[in-house]
Design goal:
This protein is α/β, with parallel strands linked by helices. It contains 14 helices and 17 strands.
């Protein structure tokens, strides 16, 4: 049995920031990640993070807040928006740039040189070429590995949150309020399940984009933390709001590659196969710089109207102003790997599931509705994004709420009573009745991903959602029985979590008939 003050589940920007700050404050911290440290959604983020410098651009917290609220389509939580607009950019500069040393691209004066992105009214985005997330993740990873008060466990999956009363030896604990006291962790290599006791737990497991057939997310984004929080009775909100990124590289029969929104911020145009622009029909004032849900829907509708499998991104206006290979090396390399010259050719694009705006409901310090459990990053719902996320605010949200959750968790640890290992059950393995067939697991994933894409994707209606709810309900009961009769493995855990999250999305989408932000219903 393992014990610590603060258990951090996940190691993207939210988890790493929480771990580093909690350790800096003197806590004994344990970080657990499903893959190797450094593999997270954060590392795939291309565009950047808001760190506006008022001295270098015409910007202010008030203007930033207005942009967030406009993208969120009337559903943003005002307190969360004000907090991020005031404190987020300062923390980006002070913590990431000055304290940790993230090497943001700089101007002649040695200050980070901000760029523009869609729906931002100022050039406020700090970036490292078009691989900002990777640069931030590498810096955070190095800090985690070198910190004397942080222990790291890699290659372990979250089985379940350890809670009172569900996992207590004393049946009288059923009368106590629910409290998270750590987690059960699966060693992905050996299959052993360990119990970890923690005074406070920070859930930072990221998103669930892999539930969709077309996604910019890696295969590890299976909603593990959200499903575990749901099983622990935490409040979950806004699950209908799945944001689709307008531009991912479309190559048939291959996974999608994100083409950063900063390309359109620098002048890239959306066109059809004939090279004709079409955004004037959907957002005549903002054109290519309209919010993501507007652009995604425009591309989807153009594809439907023309029968084409994709639209195109014209990068020639950008290439005329700058060296694409120098400013956007990730994008250039991805295009050239497919035999496309971004300087001269139109680049085929389609929308793809990108960011989950819902999640575990938390307050301004990351507290969930369950005592002892904090959440930060994409697994959480702070209310910041409302019905749709403004570009380059997700990394900033993970940074700020990871930082604040660490402060609150450490303060509570100082007052918390020690946990007695004897009060909790060790994991009780079942005698497997069957061994999971990889072909069946792959087929079940195909079922989930195709169903969500077709029935709960960019455009939705009641008939599609209702059919999907029935299909996924049947699959859920079959998979739950399968899970309880099979040995625990990473693939089974991810599949179980995926079907739980799919049902949460479908239930929320069915219950909300109002089109708002990235939730768009025809009826």
């Amino acid at each position: 049995m393992i014990s610590c003050d603060v258990l951090v589940l996940g190691a993207g920007i939210a988890g790493c920031t929480a771990a580093i700050h909690a350790a800096d404050l003197g806590a004994d911290v344990l970080v657990v990640c499903k893959d190797h440290l450094g593999e997270s959604n954060t590392s795939y983020a291309q565009g950047g993070i808001v760190g506006h410098s008022p001295e270098r651009c015409q910007d202010s917290p008030g203007l930033f807040a207005k942009d967030i609220e406009a993208a969120g389509d009337g559903l943003c939580r005002p307190e969360a928006v004000a907090l991020l607009a005031e404190q987020g950019p300062l923390l980006c500069r002070d913590f990431l740039w000055k304290h940790l040393g993230v090497a943001f691209d700089q101007g002649p004066d040695g200050m980070p040189d901000p760029t523009a992105e869609a729906a931002h009214s100022a050039r406020r985005i700090y970036h490292v070429k078009d691989a900002t997330g990777r640069a931030i993740q590498e810096t955070l990873t190095a800090s985690i590995k070198n910190h004397p008060r942080i222990r790291l466990i890699e290659g372990h999956s979250l089985v379940d949150l350890l809670t009172i009363p569900h996992h207590c030896c004393d049946p009288r604990k059923v009368y106590d309020p629910i409290q998270v006291c750590g987690a059960y962790l699966l060693d992905n290599l050996t299959g052993a399940i360990e119990t970890c006791l923690a005074k406070r737990t920070v859930l930072a497991t990221g998103g669930l984009g892999y539930l969709y057939l077309h996604t910019s997310n890696p295969p590890s984004a299976t909603g593990d933390g959200l499903a575990a929080a749901y099983r622990a009775s935490a409040r979950i909100v806004n699950c209908e709001y799945m944001q689709f990124h307008p531009t991912t590289l479309y190559i048939p029969h291959k996974s999608r590659t994100l083409l950063t929104e900063a390309l359109r911020g620098e002048g890239a145009l959306l066109v059809n196969r004939k090279g004709e622009r079409f955004m004037s029909k959907y957002a005549p004032e903002q054109m290519e710089l309209a919010p993501r849900h507007v652009v995604s829907r425009a591309i989807f509708q153009e594809m439907a109207a023309t029968g084409e499998v994709c639209m195109y991104l014209d990068l020639k206006p950008v290439a005329a102003r700058m060296d694409l290979d120098a400013r956007f090396p990730t994008v250039s390399a991805a295009c050239r790997a497919e035999g496309l010259d971004p300087n001269t050719q139109l680049i085929p694009v389609v929308p793809a599931a990108h960011f989950f705006c819902g999640g575990v409901a938390v307050d301004l310090d990351g507290h969930s509705s369950v005592r002892g459990l904090f959440a930060a990053g994409e697994v959480s719902c702070t209310g910041l994004h409302g019905a749709n996320r403004l570009a380059s605010t997700s990394l900033l949200e993970g940074l700020l709420w990871g930082y604040r959750a660490a402060e609150a968790a450490v303060a509570e640890c100082r007052e918390a009573a020690p946990l007695d290992p004897g009060d909790f059950h060790s994991w009780r393995p079942v005698s497997p009745a069957t061994t999971p067939d990889p072909v069946l697991i792959e087929q079940d994933w195909n079922n989930i991903r195709t169903t969500l894409w077709n029935y709960a994707g960019i455009v939705r209606n009641y008939a599609r959602l209702d059919r999907a709810r029935g299909d996924m309900g049947h699959l859920y009961h079959r998979l739950e029985a399968f899970y309880r009769s099979a040995p625990v493995s990473r693939s089974m855990l991810e599949l179980r979590n995926g079907i739980i999250c799919a049902r949460l999305i479908l239930k929320a989408a069915l219950q909300n008939p109002e089109s708002r932000g990235c939730h768009y219903r025809l009826n």
